[in-house]
Design brief:
Layout: E1 5-11, E2 14-20, H1 26-33, E3 52-55, E4 58-61, E5 74-76, H2 89-96, H3 106-119, H4 125-131, H5 142-165
Parallel strand pairs: 1-5
Antiparallel strand pairs: 1-2, 3-4, 3-5
């Protein structure tokens, strides 16, 4: 058994320290050590995107990131995306557009969508499809997911316009 290391990081806005072995992935630590099971394991080899989280603001497949690499980093998971009212605009859009079925891929799609809409608040359908190409869904068609991201972009745009007008 390898010697465990202490890793200090910020997860969903809270300072956290955890013990992990040097070989453990961020996905394993999130799910097994920190009991944050919203991030899903799909393929365990970085091909499906189900385990996508934001690491220092960038979407990464957490099954390919060693937890020890996260020292001093900021991590955002699906558990941290909700706003004070319960759901983020992206989560609401996914629900209202029926952009999910079994739910395994949904957290990864939502985290990738958050990064996309932060970087490009008004993406075209082609830009959405390109950005989400690393996220796979085996249950449903991608059209509803694309519709949900477009809806979320519109919600965020409307929200920003309302805030600016106030």
């Amino acid at each position: 058994m390898a010697k465990q290391r202490v890793v200090s990081t910020t997860i969903n806005g809270e300072s956290k320290s955890f013990l992990c072995e040097p070989r453990q992935t961020l996905l394993e630590v999130l799910r097994d050590s920190l009991d944050m099971t919203g991030t899903k394991e799909g393929c365990s080899n970085g091909n499906c995107g189900a385990c996508t989280v934001l690491l220092d603001g960038n979407p990464v497949t957490s099954c390919l990131v060693l937890a020890v690499e996260c020292e001093g980093s900021e991590i955002e998971t699906i558990e941290g995306i909700a706003d004070q009212d319960g759901l983020s605009p992206i989560q609401s859009a996914f629900l209202e557009n029926a952009a999910l079925q079994c739910g395994i891929c949904t957290p990864g799609f939502i985290m990738s969508s958050k990064a996309l809409l932060r970087d490009n608040p008004n993406p075209t359908e082609e830009e959405i499809r390109f950005y989400l190409a690393g996220n796979l869904c085996r249950c449903t068609g991608y059209d509803k997911i694309i519709d949900a991201v477009q809806d979320a972009a519109q919600r965020q745009s409307t929200s920003c316009q309302t805030t600016e007008a106030s």
